Amino acid sequence: MKTIIILMLASSSIAQQANPNIDTLNVKTVALKSVTVSALRANENTPIAFTNISKEELNKQNIGKDLPVLLRFSPSVVTTSDAGAGVGYTGIRVRGSDATRVNVTINGIALNDSESHGTFWVNLADFASSVEDLQVQRGGGTSTNGAGAFGASINILTDKAYESPFAQLSSSIGSFNTFKNTIKFSTGITKSGFEFSGRLSNISSDGYINRASSQLKGYFLQGTYTAANTKIKALTFGGKERTYQAWYGIDAVTLENDRTYNPAGIQYDDNGNFQGYYDNQVDNYMQDHTQLHIEQRLSNFSRISLGLNYTHGAGYYEEFYDLWNVQNVTFGNEISYEYLKLPQLSINGQPVTQTENVVRKWLDNDFYVASLLFYHQKGNHLLHAGAYFSRYEGLHFGSLVWANRASVNPNHRFYENIGKKKDSNIFAKWNIALSNQWNLYVDTQLRWIDYNAIGELAGPTAILVNDAHTFFNPKAGVVYKPHEALQFYVSYAKAHKEPNRTDYENGNPVPEELNDFELGWRWKSKAAFLNANLYYMGYKNQLVLTGAIDNVGAPVRENSGDSYRQGLEIEGGWAVATNWNWQANFSWSKNRNKYKYFERNGKLEELGETHLSYSPSLIAANQLTYNQESWSISIGSKYVGEQYMGNINAELSKLESYSVHDIQFQATLLNNANGPQLDINAHIYNIFNEKYSSNGYFYTYDDDFTNPGIVTTIEGVGYYPQAGRHFLMGITLIF
User: Fold this and answer.
1) pLDDT in tens, 626-663
2) DSSP character at residue 343
3) Cα–Cα distance measured from residue 341 to residue 99, given in angstroms and rounded to the nearest whole number
């Protein structure tokens, strides 16, 4: 086993100095420079805050949990899990910005859903096993493809071509009946320059929350061709997921008495007596990605790259609407004939207007991308230029599976709408070495958006969107290096971002605007590194999370006028002594709405400056590792301070701070030069059994029914509890 520290927390170039990118498979990879990587990623001459995470670092953590959870020790990062154990629906926030503002690309192709802007890792089971490395950029970052980065961007590069053939079998077992099995292989590069590799994965878990089960299947197949001046990479990857719904959360009383309770699919009789749960209250979706990347050397100074992508996704979530529950608990209209668009029916002369039912709400979508990148370096000048175009088409519809009091054809469609989006941009980036000490960075992007949606939503309610935007996003900064061990940088970035589909459904949103100022300092030596970064992110019309969620657990957003995020991020690592390594990061931030108004009890109140939702002021992590030649042990900690789940400073909306501690042991039991390699990996998470919730929701509504003529604002809250002490153990055999 390599005795390299897990620099999960390190920044880009400094982390690479302390932790070379060594593959745990003990086979060489072809380290071809990629136009895509160099065009979209930051390096030590880029004046922004970023973190590089290598294949080795991911592999050490990757024994069953989703990719966002593997990034949990990174600076300013908070991760969440609906099922409570990191398998299934998981999410990530960076600097308080939710997943809709975290731009994610795979090989330069946007992964964020074009309409929702979210990233659904549940559709890519065990994708971390096929990642060569990734970079997390905080703040506005560099120009990228897809929805704009308003808190962070995650740039992922899939596996490079392996020089030598191998086969790998990996299995994990853990708490909550969690199992992970992965088969991975490579033919190695042939004399003619071809290589073929692949992966099949299966992950299953019951989840910490009751019935929050996950059945996840993933695949990755890739072929590469490498010649002196040409590189071709063709790949297909994707997965199929089936998860029992766990997006409803629980209230404070239930949290205290039954943390693992899940109300999804609950069934009652006509008198309100509990009968059980609907066993098919599931989310069922599959997604397939196909990419082709061609890179050609034009001269000793220039290269060009073409990327093509087609993504198809299709699936549904199935919902049982219990008559008594809707009438007496949720007070929705999902049981009404009007909602289901059913023809009139009478029984014994009495009109029927409501029915218990099961529905499936479908999404069937296609996503096409073409990306062109150009690289030119000569003398002190480095130029990257790119053009990107994507087209998305998504069909949304609902079908009635069953109803106990209705006369209708099977799979009656009760709503249907279609969304179409075109997203294109051109950008150019210049790095100019003004001297041995000064480097100038300039980045300009022009982006066009055209979004249309037409048809009916469930309700039925009409949806009609015809919106277009043109955004100009300039960025610039300088890096000053007094000597090799020390850097200072300052930068400015402007970014714009269009509303998402849910925003349009909830009102008349306008685009967001960000002005991001970054001031940083980097220092490194042979035994240590230290980075510090000050930032101020000023927003106009930021689409902040209100705290409320919709009927599928998706967060509701609204424009907030003027707001800001400012903070200090510090991260460092130190080889304390022989075999001992320590790294840590700390983030302090102030996140505020500047001028907040709220209507309470029928009267408009001026609240002034209020906390931005889901934005803890303090986030910290540290990890201490002891290494020996064939084994290592690490202890890691993560602290997340208290945060408000709404924007009106309501005490009820506070989510308590929490601190969790993990321990990890790794060992190589067999490592023969010409024979198989056998590794074991064991994690104990939350070793002190901390009872905490990493996510929740907050809502308000006005009640004028209890006391007619008097409006009373009611507040409500829900929580997503996370697992206490639990474990995963894995074994990997490499031939």
Assistant:
1) 999 899 999 999 999 999 999 999 999 999 999 999 99
2) P
3) 34
Peptide bond connecting 75 to the previous residue in cis, omega within 30 degrees of 0: no
Q: Where do the H-state alpha helices sit in 368-496?
A: none
Are 396 and 330 within 8 A, CB to CB?
A: no
Residue whose pair of structure tokens reads 């926030």 in the numeric block:
93
Domain-by-domain residue ranges, the chain?
163-734
pLDDT tens profile 308-326: 999 999 999 999 999 999 9
Instruction: Say whether domain 163-734 belongs to CATH 3.40.50.720.
Output: no
CB atoms within 10 A of CB 350: 8
Distance, CA of 677 to CA of 666 (rounded, Å): 13
Gyration radius (Cα) of the chain, Å: 26
Q: Which of 502, 634, 570, 550 is nearest to 249 (CA)?
A: 550
Question: Cβ(513)–Cβ(664) under 8 Å?
Answer: no
Closest CA to 477 of 20, 46, 26: 46
Instruction: Say if residues 419 and 406 touch (Cβ distance below 8 Å).
Output: no
Residue 555 token pair: 């967060």
- What's the rounded Cα separation, in Å, for the pair 388 and 227? 26
Classified as helix, coil or strand, 42 is coil
User: To 10 degrees, the CA torsion angle through 134, 124, 138, 305?
Assistant: 50
Residue located via tokens 């066993």: 279
Strands 152-158 and 102-106, bridge-based pairing: parallel
Whether pTM exceeds 0.70:
yes
DSSP at 263: -
DSSP per-residue string spanning 503-539? HHHTS----EEEEEEEEEEEEE-SSEEEEEEEEEEEE
